[in-house]
Amino acid sequence: MGKVTVITSGKGGTGKSTFTAGCGAALVRRGSRVLIIDCDAGMRGIDLMLGVSGELVFDIADIVNGNCPPASAIYPCKTVPELFVLPAPQNVRDEVSPYIMKQLVTVLKKYYDHILIDCPAGIGIGMESASNAADRAILVANTEPLTIRGCDKVRQKLRELHIPEIRLVINRFHERSFRKLGTFSDLDAVIDKAGARLLGIVPEDPSAAACAQKGLPIEGKHKAVYAFDRIAARLDGVEVPLEE
Ligand SMILES: Nc1ncnc2c1ncn2[C@@H]1O[C@H](COP(=O)(O)OP(=O)(O)O)[C@@H](O)[C@H]1O
Ligand SMILES: [Mg+2]
């Protein structure tokens, strides 16, 4: 039975989708079969990031509405075998309800080692649908006060949904800019304010953005890939010391 992880954030643009794609590929490198479900209805992006957008015919709403069997709406990522994408609907009005989403994910998790769910920003119904079936949640934040403040509301909502485990990923970390900004005394202050246990730190890495724009999952000797690999190991329960 696969483990279901929802990737959330209060504020948009913290790097949820980039993280989901990178972490999915890292879990595959560890030998897992991974499904990424894009729940960002109307703003879907995982298909573009993983280079499957040209092939899309069906999406998650088509499964729910009985237009196709689940397998027809799940697309293999060509460059990463064992990584699969279930796209979000193009229109927000086709958003899947939390109840149906839970039923669907409960069936799908029999066929994968990991399901990663890319959540829309905020705490609306889309976030609820994305989170309802999750065994755990990852909050993706940057070190700006506004994104950290957003964590509060999301944590509260995740608790209401009875998600037992909530972890924090600090994305786009850049030491020099962080110190220069000086809003927080150190990273511990950021983690305290976010209110969730740290799962890992992903550095600011231009190759993460460049790969996503080309529709390629970020791989190779990049700082972000190193971070994704370590986080993926932790998600599999391996004890990896946190970076200095
Ligand atoms: N670690 C990173 N280093 C550099 N750029 C990043 C990183 N993570 C995300 N980005 C960039 O940040 C922007 C927002 O990322 P995205 O994954 O679309 O965020 P979200 O899904 O939370 O809205 C994109 O331009 C993306 O390329
Ligand atoms: Mg996104």
Secondary structural class: alpha/beta
Number of helices: 10
In which order are the strands of the major sheet placed?
3-4-2-5-1-6-7-8
- Based on Cα principal axes, name the global outline: globular
Multimeric status of the protein: single chain
Radius of gyration: 17 Å
Give helix % range.
25-40%
Instruction: Give me the strand/helix succession.
Output: EHEHHEEHEHEHEHHEHH
Q: How many structural domains in the coordinates? A: 1
Q: Into which percentage range does the β-strand content fall?
A: 15-25%
CATH homology superfamily: P-loop containing nucleotide triphosphate hydrolases
Number of β-strand runs: 8
Sheet with the most strands, sense and barrel status:
8 strands, mixed
- Average pLDDT for all residues: 94
